[in-house]
Predict the 3D structure of the following.
Amino acid sequence: MASSQDVDMRPEVHVLRLSHRAVRDKRVTTHLGLVARAFGARRLVVTGTKDEHLVNSIQRVVASWGGPFDIAFISGWMKLIRDYKSRGFRVVHLTMYGLPVQDYMSEIRKSDKILVVLGGEKVPPEAYQLADYNISITSQPHSEISALAVFLDRLFEGRELKKKFENARQVIIPQARSKYVLKK
Amino acid sequence: MASSQDVDMRPEVHVLRLSHRAVRDKRVTTHLGLVARAFGARRLVVTGTKDEHLVNSIQRVVASWGGPFDIAFISGWMKLIRDYKSRGFRVVHLTMYGLPVQDYMSEIRKSDKILVVLGGEKVPPEAYQLADYNISITSQPHSEISALAVFLDRLFEGRELKKKFENARQVIIPQARSKYVLKK
């Protein structure tokens, strides 16, 4: 059995969330940040209303359950995507209108660095043009949260389920019928 | 290549969402319903505040994108779980404190019928006792929405990605860089 040090969390994944609205999207974007961290991404970048509450929630989770993971707000998402591309990131835009994930994952998985882009209510046409891949997970309406989780689980082929986080103050010891949290 | 009729969506899956709060959980429970439908479950049962808005949103999606899928509100969730068990359903409670999904999925997959239970903020200890399995997906905090999606994607081994819905008024035709919705 592989030890915790052997879990290979390549490729490096960052997540870009477009058009966060502080009131309406509070819980959805918080869940997105938690999913990004739990499923092996390194960073969540958010455009839209700067939201200190969101930043604080994510930082509290990292302080408590470990990292590395960080969150940043930016403006100018098109420039950001171009910057990522110039640094060698492949850009994967998750959208219900895109090509089936099961047909493209083995190709996408060859990238060293991936930027996953997730839209809000209305995704500007430029996002579809700037992306290297527009990818759908089911071609049905569901949620950015589920799309990101399934994409990362398939990208990392389940390795993320065994990821060990650094500097965690607490760790869950899995139990059949109860809760056991080890405090450090 | 398998035709649409060949997609085997067994086992039959229903989803129970505990303790929905109409205001705070509106979007999260809506996303849960959309995930349940898109990833191959047949029904979402919700306990807590009856929420006509939620029922209407889900029914609108089914009318537009197809089914079968339905949503129901109930009280008395412990009795409901016992009833499901007496009808031969295996009960899988998804919780960050449970046993690793990757170690139990092949066993769980042998069931013909599965009730997936998802908690709200505070899950009563009885849920852990009534469940046949308490299962975690990563042992890290993330979201009920992502937990359900990854569980169903692994349960159905990706077959749900090709599921065809009945009586859909619109269907997405996957595209590389644009949106194409076929209206029927």
User: Anything to note?
Assistant: The radius of gyration of chain B is 16 Å. Chain B has one domain: 9-183. The mean pLDDT of chain B is 94.
